[in-house]
Amino acid sequence: MGGDANDITYAYLQLGIKAGATLAEIQAVLARAEAYRFSTKARVDHVRRFVEFFAAREKLGGINIPFADIRKAYRRKAMELHPDRNAGDKQSEDVLKDINNNYGLVEKIHQQAKIFYKKSAEEQTEMAQQARETTALERGGQPKPEPRVEPAKRGRAYRSTFTSPVGGKKYMAASVPRSIRTARLSYLPPHVIIGHGSVKRENDITYIYDYFMLPEDQFLRAKGYLSAPEIINPILQYGKFNPPYILKNTKEVFVPEGVRDAEAYARDYFRKEFGI
Description:
Layout: H1 6-15, H2 23-35, H3 41-60, H4 67-80, H5 90-116, H6 121-139, E1 169-177, H7 178-184, E2 193-201, E3 205-215, H8 216-227, E4 230-231, E5 241-242, E6 251-255, H9 262-274
Antiparallel strand pairs: 1-3, 1-6, 2-3, 4-5
Helix pairs in contact: 1-3, 1-5, 2-3, 3-5, 4-5, 6-8
């Protein structure tokens, strides 16, 4: 992948939609993410960032024109609106501020795309697949509330927004470094962590891993959050991003119909599989 169109292709990929979509179709992705029951602030903010990118491109010349043309149009307009040429003109000042903000959004994603396309083809493909899966889940609409199962836990009521129906449901699980889980999956409730592990590395450094388990749709969403780059303090550290993390040891189980405590069934299965 080369040329100035990298940022366009990358943005479509991050939204999980085909290149060439209209601005209305792009904005619909955000609307579905906001309406989806299991959406988190991190997911909505991620989608909004790319929707705003396309909206900014539209204001600067077009959502699908090369970045070089966007840059030329911006510089030309900025020269026309420069305070030296429009002294005391408040309207010109406001318009200049607006196009500066729009160009800043476009430039930020353009730089992020450069980082993405330096990754291996395998990583690019996996991230694209995860984005499509997440968007497809949201396109299916807001799921109906699931029946709650509240097994006893040390004598107290077991409360969770992640409770599951009785049987007939797929669960997925994986391990992730604790530092990454707390940074990228902080919205997960404590009970989805089904175990812990540690790995010794060189220089006698110990890495702690957490094993987490979720119903399939929620797991795919969490997997998408881990694989998506996230800007860190863009004002003070321009162009730097949290590195994406690709899960490599995912396991799954389908809980048979008739099992009263589907969550406990899946948890026991994964603990044996992972040797926790």
